[in-house]
Amino acid sequence: MSELPKCPSCSSAYTYEDGEKYVCPECAHEWPMTAAEETVSERVVRDAFGTELKDGDSVTVIKDLKVKGASSSVKVGTKVKNIRIVDGDHDIDCKIDGFGSMGLKSEFVKKA
């Protein structure tokens, strides 16, 4: 028995085949079976200067960044080690000394 793909719209595992397409009973999304066979391209995250960033890279902050709930800001030149690339608006997860875990936007960093 083959494993049916999850719904690309809502990630439901309860999809079923209906002729030449897959159907999601939870959100009523329909997509062709050929689309499920295509490989999903990996998201490329680039820094402010266009250099590709990967998990484990070190970056440097290029602009003072205000931090909600903190009395100070992350200063220009702050080096951040061992970043993680994630999906979302803030596409870098990291730990910054003095601030702890936080998310950064790739447009405000450069690869170190």
From TrEMBL:
Top-rank taxon: Bacteria
Occurrences of domain Protein YjdM N-terminal (ranges): 3-32
Single Gene Ontology MF annotation: hydrolase activity
Pfam family membership, one: YjdM
Domain Protein YjdM C-terminal: 45-112
Keywords, comma-separated and alphabetical: Hydrolase
Family: Belongs to the YjdM family.
Record protein name field: Phosphonoacetate hydrolase
Annotated source species: Trichlorobacter thiogenes
